[in-house]
Design a protein that fits this description.
Strand content of chain B: 15-25%
Helix content of chain A: 40-55%
Oligomer: heterodimer
CATH topology of chain A: Rossmann fold
Distance between the termini of chain B: 51 Å
Shape of chain A: globular
Distance between the termini of chain A: 24 Å
Structural class of chain B: alpha/beta
Number of domains of chain B: 2
Structural class of chain A: alpha/beta
Largest sheet of chain A: 5 strands, parallel
Number of domains of chain A: 1
CATH superfamily of the largest domain in chain B: Thiamin diphosphate (ThDP)-binding fold, Pyr/PP domains
CATH class of chain A: Alpha Beta
CATH architecture of the largest domain in chain B: 3-Layer(aba) Sandwich
CATH topology of the largest domain in chain B: Rossmann fold
Strand content of chain A: 5-15%
CATH superfamily of chain A: Thiamin diphosphate (ThDP)-binding fold, Pyr/PP domains
Number of strands of chain B: 14
Number of strands of chain A: 7
Largest interface: A-B, 32 and 31 residues
Largest sheet of chain B: 7 strands, mixed
Radius of gyration of chain A: 17 Å
Chain lengths: 275, 345
């Protein structure tokens, strides 16, 4: 059980990450607000609780790896990497501008701390399997975490990869599904039905956990359970709210990728500051 | 040492991989075709570094990218049509973009795949792979060249598409270097292949190097620029032409990308005429690449003709029947070359 003071520290980090996200994305330009905000606690639990990250050295051989199969959520990862000092806080506002290291989707050639090129959806779990297989071959103990979007689960390759993870009994691998119920054009269950989602992963041979994806204590506990699981990979279905933390963004697919006005940015920052 | 008189480049590939695969960086993935792609030879020798991915080419390619990101040299295998077509987006995003050390090995490529028909004949793969930044495209013409290509790939930084064939061909560029039946024991350090210096048409064949075309036969009247296992037809065409008093230069462009523009321009300048031959679409493959090189090399006065698949899909048939149907057998090649050679420039 996560001690209260540690939990409070993680919650402060989550708040800072959200503020950082809104400032980084700013007004007048389309950004993936919804799916970046829904994934904040998941990445905070990974970077600041669970993962061995060797004081922010993104090249350390023993580091745990995290990659975003839902590459459009990378602003949240940039905010975490800036908090770790891997990239500069001052470069966050350069997001998606010409010459910036901070590309619209993860580009491993440009940004330190990223593990995989993703953005075209459905490919991250396979890549994570490759990392986990290599670690096993090399006798290394680090873990691999991959964050998947729920809409992304429409892609057939995800299920090819899910079979691979189970077939090779990749227990060093944890997939976390950002289950915010929305994808680009509407509700996941209206676009193409995903449920029963937990049963699907279980049927594919995975250890499945379901948690409130904004409850840091529950997330940390689930990540610890995944570490303790032998012989099969773990899928954590993290129930989240798209746009979490900003009232007028929450639960609205229209802010999957949209631009906000300066007034909306100011309101969002005020809301987040007041928590 | 049993040396086959004829073999597919896939056979030489499987043999070379099983031997050079002693390098611990090498991992091999296959999509339920390992007897056909010949990676079973590696799998038998190094089972811990062989990964069966099932019939899931997209998953295989992305997994190979992950293994490469962790420092491995990943050989991903399937039929050429699937590894380049079905998994194109995975190749684009996770192999080419980060310049991953993945070798995409496309087996049973081209018209010479034969009987399986249009769905399985890969005649667009070179165009697809050539369009990708960072991607090298290597198309060996025979067994020895394939073995050298596999060896050279271990020292190459970045992704390679290796186009392989089941079509059995003699060894034009030298004697097969490794015994066919099973790979010999021995560590990686001792596995460097001997250089080939076999005279062909009076001239020594230059060493194999990725990105460096090889002159298989010197000539003065017309350049026959070809790639892959169709080389036998091209060399036979050169013999026809010689009998008719036309001196053809045969250029083995085993690396379609990066293209050896210097060698192509030098040969084109010497002969004044270029015929390209490939068992691939005339759009986007060797023929296109050579035209681009000649046009941008300020040699656009030099006529070029392209022999290949003329914007159609294939059909079932024996390999030799299909080559005939598409005008790619030696009489067709010789006729086209002669027309070019006799043209006033």
């Amino acid at each position: 059980m996560l001690p209260e003071d540690q939990l409070a520290a993680l919650q402060r980090r989550a708040k800072q990450i959200r503020l950082s996200l809104i400032r980084m994305m700013g007004a007048g330009k389309a950004h993936h607000f919804g799916g970046s905000l829904s994934a904040v606690e998941i990445l905070v639990a990974l970077y600041f609780y669970k993962m061995h990250y060797e004081h922010g050295d993104p090249g350390h051989a023993d580091r745990d790896r995290v990659l975003l199969s839902k590459g459009h959520g990378v602003p949240t990862q940039y905010a975490c990497l800036a908090m770790l000092g891997v990239i500069g806080q001052d470069e966050l506002p350069t997001l998606k501008t010409l010459g910036s290291r901070l590309q619209g989707h993860p580009d491993v050639r440009k940004t330190p701390g990223l593990e995989a090129p993703t953005g075209s959806l459905g490919q991250g779990l396979s890549f994570a399997n490759g990392l986990a297989l290599a670690a096993r071959l090399d006798g290394m103990a680090h873990r691999v975490y991959v964050l998947l979007g729920d809409g992304e689960l429409n892609e057939g390759q995800v299920w090819e990869a899910a079979m691979t993870s189970a077939h090779y009994r990749l227990d060093s691998l944890t997939a976390i599904i950002d289950r915010n119920d929305l994808q680009a054009q509407g509700a996941t269950e209206d676009r193409k039905r995903l449920e029963p989602l937990a049963a699907k992963w279980a049927a594919f041979g995975w250890h499945v956990l379901e948690v409130d994806g904004h409850d840091l204590r529950a997330l940390c506990d689930a990540l610890d359970q995944a570490t303790a699981t032998r012989g099969r990979p773990t899928a954590i279905i993290a129930r989240t709210v798209k746009g979490k933390g900003v009232s007028f963004l929450e639960g609205r697919f229209q802010y999957h990728n949209a631009s906000l006005t300066a007034d909306q940015i100011a309101r969002a920052l005020a809301e987040l500051e007041s928590v | 040492m049993s040396v086959p008189a004829r073999e597919g480049t896939r056979d030489a590939y499987g043999r070379a991989l099983a031997r050079l695969g002693a390098d611990p960086r090498v991992v091999v993935l296959d999509a339920d075709l390992f007897r056909s792609t010949r990676t079973h030879l590696f799998a038998e020798r190094f089972p811990e570094r062989f990964f069966e991915m099932g019939i899931a080419e997209q998953d295989m390619v992305s997994t190979a990218a992950g293994l490469a990101a962790a420092g491995k040299i990943a050989f991903a295998n399937s039929f050429a049509v699937f590894i380049t077509g079905r998994a194109f987006d995975q190749v684009r995003q996770q192999i080419a973009l980060p310049a991953a050390n993945v070798r995409l090995c496309g087996s049973s490529a081209g018209l010479t795949e034969g009987a399986d028909g249009a769905t399985h004949q890969s005649v667009l793969d070179v165009a697809l792979m050539r369009s990708l930044p960072n991607m090298a495209v290597v198309v060996p013409c025979d067994g020895p060249e394939t073995e050298h290509a596999v060896e050279a790939s271990l020292a190459w930084d970045g992704p390679i598409y290796l186009r392989l064939s089941r079509y059995e061909t003699p060894a034009w560029t030298g004697t097969p270097l490794l015994p066919r039946a099973s790979a010999p024991a021995g560590g990686y350090a001792g596995n460097t292949l001997p250089r080939v210096k076999k005279p062909a048409g009076g001239a020594a064949i230059p060493d194999f190097a990725i990105g460096k075309a090889r002159i298989l036969r010197s000539g003065t009247d017309v350049t026959l620029a070809a790639t892959g296992v169709i080389m036998g037809e091209v060399l036979a065409a050169a013999d026809f032409l010689a009998a008719r008093g036309i001196s053809a230069e045969v250029l083995d462009i085993h690396t379609v990308k990066p293209l050896d523009t210097d060698s192509i321009l030098a040969s084109a300048s010497k002969t004044g005429r270029v015929l390209t031959i490939e068992e691939h679409s005339i759009y986007g493959g060797l023929g296109s690449a050579v035209c681009e090189a000649i046009a941008e090399g300020a040699k656009s006065h030099i006529p070029v003709r392209r022999l290949g698949v003329r914007d159609v899909f294939g059909e079932s048939g024996e390999a030799d029947q299909l080559l005939e149907l598409h005008g790619l057998t030696s009489p067709h090649i010789a006729r086209a070359a002669e027309e070019l050679a006799r043209r006033r420039c």
